[in-house]
Amino acid sequence: MKKAVFAGSFDPFTEGHLDLVKRAAPLFQELIILLAENTQKKYLFSLENRLEWVRNAVAEIPNVRVETYSGLTVDFMKQVNATYLIRGIRSALDFEYERSVAYNNKKMYGLSETILLPCAMEHSTISSSLVRELLRFSASLKGFVPESIRESVERKGKEILCLE
User: Fold this and answer.
1) Could you tell me the pLDDT band of residue 35, with boundaries at 50, 70 and 90?
2) Which of 78, 90, 127, 148 does the annotation list as catalytic?
3) Is 11 helix (H, G, I), strand (E, B) or coil?
């Protein structure tokens, strides 16, 4: 079975993330979206919120499931017998970073293959960092996060940032 993992913190999940999932899912029998749990990183949104939003955003894609894991992505890949890692790239800088990560992942898990998907042009400037910045200024997230989760992300962002 061709199985792939798309890992990230998704703080929050964006239109760019969803676009990558929609483009990658048909290439595999199963695509697992892996929400990272990095204890060294400070997230704006809770794991529970992020998990709910990603699940809602991809609910209509039949061969996609969402999991969480707090270790190395390659260890998770071994655990679920996935050999492909999907990564999105927006720029040459992203490419260089992802290339080095792919090399190290291959050293740790020889079966892993990293597939770099270029971001669609209309999503090339969207990042979770940008979405969090928009939230800080109470801007609408329309077009930046999937419509199925937009109101929830905006509401929770206002609550966390004490903007109401």
Assistant:
1) very high
2) 90
3) coil
